[in-house]
Design brief:
Distance between the termini: 30 Å
Largest sheet: 9 strands, parallel
Strand content: 5-15%
Shape: globular
Number of domains: 1
Low-confidence stretches: none
CATH architecture: Alpha-Beta Complex
Helix content: 25-40%
Mean pLDDT: 93
């Protein structure tokens, strides 16, 4: 079930960026045809329900968070695909990877062969890249339009905020953000292809607004180790142990 109020947010996104709902749906239909099997959402529940969840983005603070992420190796990690190259380089495996396939292709292919759950988003601009999905071991499709068939809509726009919407949808106990800065600086691992810096920052701004809207629903305990976000409690790395023990 899609989060209540999502249709209004999606309409705002279409208007702001000039996207085509028709092309988004076309992409979703193609992804649905490529996916071999219907994904069991119990796999998400096993990793997320009543669990502490780290959401990891590719913002400028990602690098400083690596030692902390290594320390909590058993905590569920949902990762935006821009961050995955840095994690692989530091021998940190995501439990769930959220991607619209515009990150580092070699990293995506490597992770796609593992037990990591690949949450692949279909939109009008990635139709030509969806064939990559046929090589992924554990894969589920998402869209911003209506859910159907093997395609879900958990909410969210950018890879980073979709990670948070996913954790919220499956009722994480606490959601803690790393490398999720949503500022005017682009992390070195963020978006290796396609976009201009101006468009990227505009999308990050929209993603931040969506997280503030999600936080207003107050359905999970929300924290960030990155830049402050309204509705998320700002904490330092050395405060994390205290937060997780409560």
């Amino acid at each position: 079930m899609t989060i209540l109020g999502w249709e209004k947010r999606y309409s705002e996104i279409l208007k702001e960026f000039g996207f085509s709902k028709k092309r988004d749906l076309k992409s979703a239909k193609l992804l649905n045809s490529i996916l071999k099997n219907k994904f069991s959402c119990n796999k998400f529940r096993n990793l997320i329900l009543n669990q502490d969840v780290f959401v990891i983005g590719a913002g400028p603070t990602l690098i400083s968070s690596i030692p902390t992420l290594k320390k909590y190796s058993s905590t569920t990690k949902i990762v935006a695909d821009g961050a995955v190259k840095a994690l692989i380089e530091n021998k940190i495996m995501p439990d769930i990877l959220v991607s619209d396939l515009d990150g580092d292709e070699n990293s995506l292919k490597k992770i796609g062969k593992s037990n990591t759950i690949m949450v692949i988003h279909a939109h009008g601009d990635n139709i030509n890249r969806l064939e990559l999905v046929s090589n992924f071991k554990n894969c589920v499709g998402t869209t911003e339009t209506r859910p159907f068939g093997k395609i879900h809509n958990f909410g969210g726009f950018t890879d980073g905020d979709r990670c948070v919407f996913l954790a919220r949808h499956f009722k994480a106990k606490r959601i803690i953000l790393f490398g999720m800065d949503f500022g005017n600086k682009i992390g070195k691992y963020s978006k290796t292809k396609i976009e201009s810096k101006k468009i990227k920052i505009k999308k990050l701004r929209r993603g931040r607004k969506l997280l503030e809207w999600l936080a207003s629903k107050n359905s999970s305990n929300l924290y960030t180790t990155s830049k402050p976000i309204k509705g998320f409690k700002k904490i330092c790395y050395n405060e994390l142990e205290k937060v997780l023990s409560n």
